User: Fold these one by one.
Assistant:
Number 1:
Amino acid sequence: MLRIGPHTFDSPFVQAALSGYSDTAMRLIARRMGAPYTLHEVVLDKLVIHKGRLQRRILDVSPDEHPVGGQLMGSEPEQFSAAAARMAESGFDVVDINFGCPVKKVLGRKRGGYLLSDPETAIEIVRRVRDAVDSETPVTVKMRRGLDDSPESEDNFFRIFDAAFDYGIAAITVHGRTVEQRYIGPSRWSFLARVKRHAGTRVVLGSGDLFTAEDCVRMLRETGVDGVTIARGCIGNPWIFNEARALLAGGDLPDPPSVAEQGRVIREHFALSERFIGAAAGRVMRKFGIKYAELHPDYEAVRSAFIACKEREQWLRVLDEWYDPNRDWAPGQRKLGPGDLIAAGACA
C-alpha cells in the first residue's frame, strides 16, 4: 500500500511525470496496465496561469484517470503558487513541485534542479504552494539528490527536504542522481536508503534506473522507500506495472507480452491519442511507436516502420503488417537498459 495524503493506492508503482510523453493517452494506458497513480508531464507555471488553448489542454483532466497528479516547474514563488491553485481547482488530485529537471535551458532559467542550489527560494515555493492549495489536495515534491556531489549540495538537499515536510508536504520523490549527472552513471540507491532512514514514517518515493519489473521491486527492498516512480522504463512498456505487481506479490515474472498483445495495446493507445488530440496523434504517437518497437522480435524493421508514420492510415498499416495476431511471432524478448533510453523523458 502507498499513501499520499488522503489517497491510498493498492500498489507502490507510480508512473512518473515524463516531459514530452505522459499525456492523457499514456496515463490512461498506464492505469489500465496496473499503475494506480500517474502524473501529467511537467508544465511551466506561466502556461497554467495564462488563458488560452494550451492552458485548456493542460488543465483538461479525463474523468476516468483519477487520481492524477500535475507537476509544475517555475522560479517565482508567487507565480508558482498561483499556478498550483489553478491546477488543483481544475481537478488534479495532487500538485507536484519539480526541483529535479536537469535540462540545461531549464537550469539557465533558474527552474527545476537549479533550485536545489537556492534553498531559500525552493522553500518559499513549497510554503506558498502549500498555502495556496486547498487542504484536501496533497502537495508533493520531486528532487534529485543534489546539484552535485559537494557537501554543500547535500546540506541544501536535506534543508529543503526537511523544510518541505515541515510545511505539510505529503510525499517527496528522490532521484538517485545529481542534477550535474543528468542521466550519466548509475542512480545511487544507497542515498535513497539513507534518505528513507532519515525520513522515518514520512513518505518517500524512489526514482532512477527502473527499467524492469525486477528493478522496481529491488529498489523497494534495498532502500525501504514507500514507492517508486517509473519514468523512462515505462515508455513503450506499460506492462512493467503489472509485472512489478506480480513480483511484489511473490509470483513469477509474467511472460513478455506476445506480439498480438503488444498490437492490442498500441492500437488502444493510438485510439486514445486520437480521442484527445485528433489528427495530431499520427505525429505525436511516432515517438511512442519507436519505444513500443523495442519489445518486438523484429525491432529494427518495426522501429523504421514507425519512424515513417505521420498519419492514421500509415499507423494502421504498420499495425496490420507487424502486429498481425495470425502470424507466428515469437514472444518479445528484448530487455531495455539505460543506454536505450538516455534521450527519452528529459525531465523524468
Number 2:
Amino acid sequence: MVATFRSLDGTLLSAQVVLPAGAAKGTVVALHGCGGLFAAQGTRKGGLNARHQGMADFLVAEGYAVVFPDSLTPRGEKELCTQKIGQRAVGQVQRRADALAAVAWAAAQPWTPSQRVALLGWSHGGSAVLGSTDARRADVTAQAVRPAVAVAFYPGCSAALQAGYRPSTRLVLMLGEKDDWTAPGPCVELGRATNAEVNLYAGSYHDFDNPVGKVRLRHDVPNGVNPGQGVHVGANPQARAQSYGRLLQLLAEAFQR
C-alpha cells in the first residue's frame, strides 16, 4: 500500500508499505540510495527496484513490516547518482528530516507492536541512517521514538567521521571491501571510534546485496574514490546471504528488548 505523511521539513512524502500476512514482529524503515526507490527501466519500471523488492520480500517473509519513504519524487527528482555531490538539491538535511518523520510515523501505526522500529538504509540512504541517529543533533534527540537498531549498507562515512558522530542507538555497518564509490575505510574508522559493529565483506563492491545482475563499471557516476573514472557496482551472492542473515539476527535481538 502507499501511505503519506509529512517530513520534518514539511514536505509531503509518500511511502511504499509492505505488511506481513500475520501480526508484525516489528517495522523496518528502509531508506533508498541515490538511485531512488523505483526501477527506471525493464520489467520492474515504476515499481520497487530489485534491491528494495528483494529486501521487502525477505523481511515480510520473516514477519516484519517494511516502510520505504520516497525522498526524491516529492521533491521533483528521479535520481541523484549522476549528479555531483555539491550540486544535489536533495542532501542529507532533507534525508534526515524524512527518516526521523518516517520512524515516528511507523512507530505510531497499529501494526507496529510496542513502537518497535528499526532503521535501514543503502548508500545515500545509509548516510541518512547516520545523520538521523547522530546524538549530537537536537532534532535527533528531540524525537520521542528512536530506532531499536540502525543498519547502514555501504554509507558514505567521511562526513560523519569528521563531524564527531555519536550514535543514538546501536549502529551496524555493512560494507564492501572493494567499494570504490563509498570507500569502506572511513566507515571502518567510524566503527572503531563509536564502538559500532562493522561487517566488511570480502571481494564485494557497492550494491553487493542486489539480488540480480553482475558487477559492472558505471561511467555515469561523477563521484566516488576516483572521480571521473566511474565506480563499480554489483551483486555478490555470498555477501548478500551473509548480510541478510546478520540483519535477521540484529532485528531479533533489537525487538526482544
Number 3:
Amino acid sequence: MTKISIITIGDELLIGQVVDTNSAWMAQELNKAGFWVNRRVAIGDDRNDILNALDEEAEGSDIILITGGLGPTADDITKPVLCEYFNTTLVINEEALENVRNIFVKILQRPLIERNLKQAEVPASCQVIQNKRGTAPGMLFEKNGKVFVSMPGVPHEMKGMMTEEIIPWISTRFGKDFISHRTLLTAGVGESTLADHIRDFERSLPPGIKLAYLPNYGMVRLRLTVTGKSATGLESQLEHVFEDLKSRVPEWLVTDEDIALQEVVGKILNARKQTLATAESCTGGYVAHLITSIPGSSRYFRGSVIAYDNDIKKKMLGVDPAILSAYGAVSEETVRAMVSGAVRNLESDYAIATSGIMGPDGGSENKPVGTVWIAAGNAREIITQKLWFRFDRQRNIELTAVNVLNLLRRFILSRPPVGVLRDLIN
C-alpha cells in the first residue's frame, strides 16, 4: 500500500493561533481516493526542522505532501529550504508570473510590488503546479524514488490543487488501493461498556477488517475498515460484518451512517415533513448553529429564540414570571415552558430548550456549575432531562447541544408520524 505523509508548516500551528484543518481534510480526501495517510506532522517556520522533517518522512513514506510557508513575507521560508534540500535555485516561472499579474492588476486592480512578483519564483528542479485560486504555485519534486509536493497553506488554494491536480496525478502514478469504511453512531453508552458488550464480535472479525472506537461528547462511533487491492468480495464481506455489528447494539444505535447527530435529526424531520424550533439559554444559539450547518435545513428549521435573559424568556417565549420566581431559570418547569412558547410562537411541530450553568462560575449549593435542564416536545407532550457536567464552559455547551438533539431524536421516533397519529385519533 502506498504510504503518504503530510507536513504542515507554520509557527501559528504550533502555538495554537491557527487550527490545522488542512491535514484533516487532505487525509479524508486521500482516503476516499484509495490512499492511506501514514503520518501527519506539524512543524514551525524553522530551516532545520523543515529539513529534518523531510528526511524523516521520506524514510517511511512514498509521498510527502507539504502545506504552508509559501507566502511573500520573510517568515515564509519553505521555498528557499526546498531549494537547499533539492540542491537547486529559485527561478521565475513565466506562467505563474502571468497569473500573479492577472490577479493583482486585472482582478484586484492593485499595483504590483516586488514582493508580489516573488510569488512567481519556484525551485528550478520542480514540476510547477499552477494555482488557479491564488498567487503561490505548487511544486512537485522527485528524489530517491520519493515524491514531494509543496502547496500553499491557504485552505481554499490547497484544496483546489489537491482535487484538480495532485490526487489525479498520484492515482495515475502509484495506482490506488481499495479502502472502505462503514460507521455507526451510538449514544447512551460509554466506550468501555460498549467494548465489553461487543467483545465476542471484535474477537471474531475476519482478517483484513479492523474495528475502531471513536468517542466524542457522550457518543461513540464504531468504524469498520477493510483494505485490499480490489473491491472484489471485500465490500460484501464488510457489509455482512457491519449488519452483524448493528444487530448487537440496537438499544444504543443512533444511525448507521457516518453523519453528525444534527443531520440525523434533520433527516427524520425531512422524512416526516415536520419542523423544529429552538429555545436556548445556556447554549446561546449553539444548537441552532449546528442545525443550520446542514445544507437544506431551511426545509425543517423554523428559527431560534436565544432567551439568555429572563426578560426574554418572559416576553419572547411567554414563560410565566411565577415559574421563574418559584423554580428559577435552571429548572424543569422553565424548560417545559420554553418548549411550549417556542412551539407556539415559532409555529413549529417540535421545539427543544436548554437552560443551565455553564461555568466557570454562577453556580450555587443547590445548582452547582454544570447543572443543566433540557427539554423536547410538541404542542401535546414534552419530555425533560436533567444533566450534570464537570467540564469547561465550551465542552459543557457542546455536551448540552448533543444531549438535547438526541433527546429530540428519541422523542420523535417514539411517537407515530403525524399521518398515523391522525388515523389513530379518527
Number 4:
Amino acid sequence: MVPFMDGFIAPGFAAVGEAFAIEPRGGSALTVLRDGEPVVELVEGWRDEARTAPWQPNTLVNVYSTGKPVIAMAAMILVARGLVDLDALMSTYWTSFQTPASVRQVLSHTAGLPFFPVPRTASAFSDWDLLCGDLAATSPEWEPGTVAAEHALTYGHLVGELVRRVDGRPPARFVAEELGFDFGFALADADLARCADLEFDRPDWPQRNAGEPDSPKSRAISNPEGARDLSVVNSTAWRQATVPAVNLHASATGIARFYAAILDGSLPSLAVPQFTGPDLFIGEETTWGLGVQLEPDGTWGHGGLGGSAGYADPARGLAIAYVTRRLGDFAALDRIDAALPR
C-alpha cells in the first residue's frame, strides 16, 4: 500500500522533505519552525494498524521521553514565579519525601531515584498517589548529585508531584492550562479519537530495548510493568493516565511550538548545564540541563524511546519535532537532521 503523505515545505528545505520521505514509518510527522514560523510541516502514513485512518497534522501519538522537558517546564514556570527554589530540598515542598535531593538534582537526573522501589503491575500507572508514595518513602541508590542516571519512569512523578504540592493543580491540568500546546497527559475523552496506535518495527523491539539484565536501564524501565507492551500503551487507561516521564501524547507541531516558545523567551530556559559525565542509564557521557540534554553542536532537547524527538537549534533559530507510531530507532531523525540547511 502506497503511504499517504501531505504537508508543506518552504524553499530551501526540500532536502528535509526528501529525508523524511526516504523511509516512511507508516505513520509519522515532522515539523520544523524557523523563528517561530513553519518551514516544514509533513505527515505520512496512518494512525491505525489497519491503515484506514490517514495521519493528520493534529494526530496525537505517545512520544515517550520526548515529553520529559514538558513536565520539567512545569516546574521551571514555578521557579520563574518565585514559588520554587532550585536548590531547596524536595522535602521543602513535599514533606514526606525522604531522599535529601534538591529540586535541581531531580530536574537533572542526579537525584539517585531512577527506579520505582516497589514492584507494581501496569495498573499502577493509573494510581498517581500510589507511585508517588513509593518514591517519597524510598532511599536513593546513590548520594544525590554524585551520579547521573536518566530517571526513565520516575522523573514525571518526582517533578509532577512537586508541581502539584506547590501549585495545587494536578500536573496534567497544569500543563494544559499553562502551556496550551497541542499535547497533553491524561487525555480527555474528546482527544482519544486523535490518537495513533503504536507498533513495533520488528517483533523483537521490546527485547532490543530492554537493557542488560539487572543493569540500570533494565531496572529503570521494567517497573511498573507494561511501558513497552502494546496492549498497555495503546489502551485508553494509559492514554488517560498521568505518567509524565513517558506518556505525553503530542502532535509534531505541538512539540515544535513548545521549543520555539523557549527560544523566543516566552518560556523559561531549560538549556542550562547541570551535569556532564557518564549517565548510567544512557550508557555514555551526557550533559544534562534542566530536563533536556545538551549536545556538543549547541542543540538541545530530548528524544523518546522508539525514535521520536523534539529539540532546538538556537544558532539557526530552529525548533524541530519528529514523532512516529512505529517504534524503532533514530535513523529517520538522523537523516532529517543531516538535511537541515546549515
